[in-house]
Design brief:
The chain is of the alpha/beta class. 57% of the residues lie in helices and 14% in strands. The chain folds into 2 domains: 197 residues, NAD(P)-binding Rossmann-like Domain (Rossmann fold), CATH 3.40.50; 136 residues, N-(1-d-carboxylethyl)-l-norvaline Dehydrogenase, domain 2 (Orthogonal Bundle). It is built from 17 helices and 10 strands. A hairpin with a 2-residue loop joins strand 1 and strand 2. Helix 1 packs across helix 9.
Length: 347
Amino acid sequence: MADIEFGGVIESVVTRKEFTLEHAKEVLKDETVAVLGYGIQGRSQALNMRDNGINVVVGQRPGKSYDAAVKDGWIPGKTLLTLEEAVRKATVVQYLLTDAGQKDNWPAVKAALRPGSALYFSHGFSITFRDQTGVVPPDNVDVILVAPKGPGAAVRTLFLAGKGVNSSYAVYQDSTGRAKERTIALGMAIGSGYLFPTTIEKEAISDLVGERGVLLGALAGIMEAQYQTFRGRGHSPSEAFNETVEELTQGLIGLVAEKGMDFMFANCSETARIGALRWAPRFRDTVRPLFEALYDSVESGKEANVVLTESKEPGFKEDLSGRLERMRNSEMWRAGQTVRDLRPEKN
């Protein structure tokens, strides 16, 4: 553990210096890790662990994800099994199905769990909202979490680039006395940059708020609002998109990632800095009540109920595809496709 200051607050985190990959492999040398679900997160974590020399099997029902697993070199009947077979074979069960899928498959998974196993999550949803999901682990297993702070695709691409996505970790139940060591070892094995502590409940709430807020929902909504304002005031689609999205994604956000918001501001014009510093508090004060309402909705379990209910409605997948199709075919994002096609690297 390393005590590091984050904005004036000291936190104990785990880096690759204190807990090396070689040590992680030693901790996991006698473990068999079953990754249940070969979606974006499951695929990335399974491949990263396999590349790091961890004994991994995949549990996946037939379908597109199963076919993708075969293409990636998982062998049916040996390293590619049914969910129940994978659980029975494993000492660590990474439960990486969708949240709704975790609820549906929990009775079968629970029945196949071996005493002393570790039940691993990358999202605290099922445990935090167990009154809705029914996911209540038995007392004779470790219950742990490693949650990469990035989409599954980034977990894999950054791993291949020799980097890593930072992850939070938590121990919800320590049955064996080894739960924390197992958790950190698994976090390093999937390629985490560093690990910071949380609880399963805090991870679930922060993840749901973040996705509905800055990471996806708020970002999409704010972009649409500015684009529509430009268009309503007579600006062209090209100009509206470039001023709303392209300049942010192709230049400014990289400066924030490099050294922070102040660095980005310092690399903009004086006129931009003066205006942005004047308007930022107004946006903050206007949006803060909305974030408070969002947090309340998540904490109360209302958002979990929406997820579990909507995902079971007839035609859910078709409706979701339709909504994404409408977004893709909106003027704003059709303009965006044209702008992307005109980037210098494509010409």
